[in-house]
Amino acid sequence: MRTLTKAACTVAGIAALCGSAPAFALTATTEGSKAYTSNSNLTANVEDTKADSRAAKGEYYRKSEPGVTKNLWNKSGAGTVVSSTGSTAIYQLRACRQEQSAPDTCGKWVA
Fold this sequence. Notes:
Blueprint: H1 2-18, E1 27-30, E2 33-38, E3 43-48, E4 56-62, E5 70-74, E6 81-85, E7 90-97, E8 105-106
Antiparallel strand pairs: 1-2, 2-3, 3-6, 4-5, 4-7, 7-8
Keywords: Signal
Signal peptide: 1-25
């Protein structure tokens, strides 16, 4: 009887783990900027990590609009975070930093 109970618990545990895939937070950085997700990847966050008078930016894609690049700017200064929450998960993002008279500098996309 004890073996049967253990087997039933093992099967139930595996089913609980396999029933839904966990949403892992995404994090991307580049000099002066950190972009990351929270709230089961529904919220994009951009942190300005350097006091250099340049804005931080996060670029990301939501499942509801694949192929449409979203931009979230943080122009509040070093040490601040801005956030944006949507109704569908973010599946890819990268961190960027504003450049003066040049294209923004961006890190690698993470998924």
